[in-house]
Amino acid sequence: MKYSGIEWIGEIPDNWVLERIQWHLDEIKESNNPIKTEKVLSLTNKLGVIPYEEKGEQGNKAKENIAEYKLAYPNTIVANSMNILIGSVGRCDYYGCVSPVYYVFKPKENENIDFLNYIFQLNQFQRELRRYANGILEIRLRLSSADILKRIVAFPPSNEQEKIVDYLKRKSDEINSLINIENLQIEKLEEYRLSLIGDEVFQKEKNGSLGSTANRIVKIPSNWNVLPMKSLFDFGKGLPITKENLVDSGVKVISYGQIHAKFNKSVSIDEKLYRFVEDKYLENNPECIVKKHDYIFADTSEDLKGTCDFIHIDSDEIIFAGYHCIILKNKGNFNPYYLSYQFLSDDWREFFRCRVGGVKLFSLTKKLLSQGHVILPPIDVQNQIVQRLNEKCKTIDSIIEIKKEKIEKLEEYKKSLIYEYITGKKEVNA
User: Fold this and answer.
1) Predicted TM-score (pTM) of this structure
2) Which of 134, 202, 290, 414 sits between 20 and 30 A of 252, alpha carbons compared?
3) What is the pLDDT of residue 271?
């Protein structure tokens, strides 16, 4: 072994060489103007490069003018110039077009594209790239393609690259299979959780008179009330801002992206998901501040299931509702946690899912939300239901958390395995 002279690489085998990436990859800068393909490709952190229609609600909406896009080909590497530092880079197996902010790299003759792609997946390499990035906001740092290609990495002989790639693919498939099992179990637990919430919120096991959450008719006790949303809330809009108005510190703000990331929780958003805006908005937009036990609904979703995703504010802090948000200002006499659970139920959300407009983008409006209804039992019954659901959901959530921790450890193991073999710390046995 010999010391590479590069801190993140460390020691490498004696027969490995240090070379710039540009000796192994070329950048493609081929425009889609005039339009050669209408197949739009998207880059995701977990799935890599996929057709745009398969990406779900991750990332940004595609531009309508695809003539501004770049061409991408099978057997290339696609990297987001502003998100490569957090792993937005992956192998492309499609012919299509990608956002103009993406870089497309093709391997030189006889180069192993999979070995090169593994290098880009290394957290250690991504941290090295961070040193050459420019920008004001941490979340929007931009890296030039030239700075990427100039980086020096370690390369084994081509036959060793093939062995390493074959081994890592096999081990990654094994680990991914275990991760998929855990994810499926989490999905089942979350489905059970929502089913349990619907049963408890409307006391479906008990006989009673008919009440309506709109499209869905449920049986409720005769002393329960069906009330219009507008009798319990005043409706407002979030800050008229965009991503460019976010800063690294200031007043906390929750926008629609954070809501979709946390939609199935009835408590305040995770600290790590907050963004920030400047203090000037406190004076200019006080109506966009949310108070404890208000709700923030995302007014836009990229799938129908995400319609009515929301956050229940369970904090006395000063917090803004951000862009693409509707504020429900609490003015009713009810247990806010009970309504949080009701807002999670499919019975309640179905009314809005049937009425939102859109095909690839579904829009929820203040007017539509105000046309909805809620079912309210007496306050003592609300409190009892909340107590039962808190206990039951806590048990389910704790099981889910254990499974998520297991997935995280498997992911960490996979990353450590890739690092050890891609930098030569371990050798593939013949």
Assistant:
1) 0.79
2) 134
3) 62
